[in-house]
Every structure is written in structure tokens, then in C-alpha cells.
Amino acid sequence: MSEHFDVLIVGAGISGIGAGRYLKTELPGKSFAILEARGASGGTWDLFRYPGIRSDSDLHTFGYEFKPWRDEESIADAPRILSYLRETATENGLDQHIRYHHRVVAASWSSEHARWTVTLADGRTLTCGWLFSASGYYRYDEGFTPEFAGRDRFGGTIVHPQHWPEDLDHAGKRVLVIGSGATAVTLVPAMSRTAGHVTMLQRTPSYILPVPKKDAIANALKKRLGPERGYAWTRRKNIVQQKAIWSFCRRFPNTARKVIRWVNTRQLPAGYPVDEHFNPPYAPWDQRLCAVPDGDLFRAIRSGRASVVTDRIVTFTETGVRLESGREIDADVIVTATGLNVQAFGGVPLTVDGAAVKLADTVAYKGMMLSGVPNLAYAIGYTNSSWTLKIGLLCEHFCRLLAHMDAHGYDICRPEVADPSMPTRPFLDFGAGYIERAVDQLPRQGDRMPWLTSMDYQSDVRLLRADSVTDPELHFAGIPV
């Protein structure tokens, strides 16, 4: 017989550890396990090993509400974030609940028995009353690399940041980083410290803003009020600050563009072609802004250790790449910082009573469940502010929902759209390439609550923390007799 749990959490990263803590604290009587495909916890922060990897959100909001971030640096590197996550797991007694090398390959729901049967890669099965997907939205086994003509001709080393070799030595070498997103702007200054020279080659510029690595106000508040109260007040401050910046960019895009350009100009050498390399054709926050702590990217450019080229690749050559302009860039190491492959629910195929679930035919309920799919919850954070802000609210709501079902003797909970003609749009209204490549494989969202996927923290506080867990379009039932 399969081992049975009240809840199975898939993924031991920042979302899975958070979900486990909320379950253990709010519903201590529930049995649960956290299934991790890899041999270590931490998700993204353990998987990625490229130079300089860090968060581009401040840890006072990217951290958990219940666990203060005590470090002086609010923009932190991966080792410190990983230590924070594993400390959280240990402090909350979650280590014993994490099962490593448990890769989920399928999940099937039975209404007759009101349970999920989860199949693992080794053929074993587990069952649960609820399945909670905390696996993020990208593939862990491979990143995205476009087809480059002549790639096989290149005589040097080609590496994708998602699969960084431990023995890669770039000291004194010419490095070409292809890309302009968060990963690229992290890699360039980090590698430039020891490389001969680093070139960032981009097709299209990104909006890039310097941010202080240390939050002086946060550190003063923690010193004056103590770590817990100081953290709480800093968190409130930064939530308001994030919302204000995003709202300003969306309401006044032309003004925001001018402000960002002015900041960039002050950070770059006199006479630098700012409009060529730092003036995107889209409005601010059509895609995520890239943050650079203490302006490290700009410092690398000013020092001459790094440079930016805006052009398109025609072909790889034996010694580098040739561009549409005719220019050739020689390199010893080429880093394809070209993005992620989006994959919802870890790529696990779902079936409900024998019928396959096609994600594109489902609609997201409160940004945490899927129409027509019973007893399944998932954790997807914000794209316009710190990911974890939403995860905490989702986990709170999930625990309240389970408590409501226990109080009323329900075994099954299924969202259903009352009006089949309700207009829908993409689940994530975000212009990033990695989202656009996969938009037809993701759930949809509606044009009204509870079918909207909110990206606003205050709205979600009202919906997920303060509002009732019940809704006319959320249906409850017991096990059929």
C-alpha cells in the first residue's frame, strides 16, 4: 500500500519550505512531506552556481514574514540566502519532512477516494488528500538557448548559467556574455574582477537601476528597535516602496524612462552612448527591471573591465561571434545567459478521474488553484515585486481553507467557473521572453475575482488574509457514498 499524507508539497525551495512551515504551525495535526527531486534543499539558490549569483529583491521582503533577515546587506548572494532557507527548515522541524531524490513524474486524482496518487521516478507511489506544487515555473534540468548558426565551430568554451561547471577558469580570459537580463547583469561585474575583459552582447537593452547593497534605514531600525520589530517596519517600508516605484513606472512611463536614463548617465563615463545600450524600446516594467547592487555593472564599465555591445549574432566563428554590423567579437569563453524554459507544476502531467488536465484550458482561481482540478494548490509569487510576499499569503489562505474543510467535514474542494463565456487572458501579463515562449502552455486568468491573478500585495492581503475562504465558485463535497 502507498504511504498516505494529508498534504504532499512538491519542491524544497523557498516556496516549499515556506509551505511546510505554515502547515506545521497553523495545522500541526496534518501529516505532510516535502518531495524534492534533487539531493539538496534550497531550489534555485542551491541549483545555480554561476559567479555573483544573488537576489535582485531585498531580503526584507524576499525573506519570510515570520523570520527576520539579520544580515546587514539587504541584497544578498546565494550562499547567504541558502543558509537562511536551511536555517528556517531546521528551526521549524522541517528537515525530517523533506524527502530527497523523490522526483514526481505523474499525479492522478480520484474523486471516488478523494485523493491524489503521486508517482515517483523510481516507480513508487504516494497518496495524499491535497497536492501543493511549490516547484516554481521553470525547468530545473535545462535553460533556454536559442539556435546559433555555427555554434559547433567555436573553439572555446560555451556554458549556460544554469549548468555552470565547477572547474571553469575564466581568469585573464576574454569572456562574452550573451544576454541583458538579471543573470547577465550579475555575471558581467562578477566575472570582470578576474577576467581579461567581459563583453555583454545584447539584442535589446534592459532597464537597469543601481540599488544600495545595504539598506541604511533598515539597519538603523534593527539597531534601534531590535531585529524582529526593525525587520517588520523595514518590510512595511519596502513593500510600499516597491509598489510606489512600479505604480510610477506604469502611470508615467515616459517620465520614468527619463529618470532611469538620467540615473544611468550619471553612472556611466562621460560621452557614453547611453541611448544605444541602455534605452529599451518598451516601457518600464513591461519587463522586470534589473537591479545592480551598488551599481557594480556600471563600475565595471567605467573601469574598462567590461563593455556593452548592442547587435545581433549572425554566426559563431572559430574564435567568437560575427554580428550583423560586420563586427567580430573574439572570446575564450561564451556564456549564453539567454534565459529559462518555463514549465508549470514541474512538468508533472495531471489527470482527474482518468482525464488528462490541459493547463491552457484551466483558469487560475485566486492565483493558487485551477478550475476543474480538485485539492490542488500551487505557489507562484509576484513578478513585479518580491516573489515571497505572495507565497506567504497563499500559504496562510491554504491553511485556512484546510481548516474550513475539516470544520465542516469536507474532503473535496474544486473551483468551477460559473460563466463559461467569461473572457480570459494569459496567466502572467508579462512581456519577458521566457513567459511569451510558454504562454500557450500555461493556465489562463479571468476578468474578475476570484479568477484574476493579482500582482498587488495589498489587494492580496484583503483577498487571501482578510476575506473568507469560501466563494460561490468554490465547491465543497465529502467522499461520495
Automatic annotation (TrEMBL):
GO MF term set: flavin adenine dinucleotide binding; N,N-dimethylaniline monooxygenase activity; NADP binding
Keyword NADP included in the entry's annotation: yes
Record-linked Pfam families: FMO-like, NAD_binding_8
Keywords: FAD, Flavoprotein, Monooxygenase, NADP, Oxidoreductase
InterPro entries membership: FAD-binding_MO, FAD/NAD-bd_sf, Flavin_mOase-like
Obligatory cofactor(s): FAD
PANTHER family (UniProt xref): MONOOXYGENASE, PUTATIVE (AFU_ORTHOLOGUE AFUA_8G02570)-RELATED
Family from the record: Belongs to the FAD-binding monooxygenase family.
Protein name in the entry: FAD-containing monooxygenase EthA
Annotated organism of origin: Actinoplanes utahensis
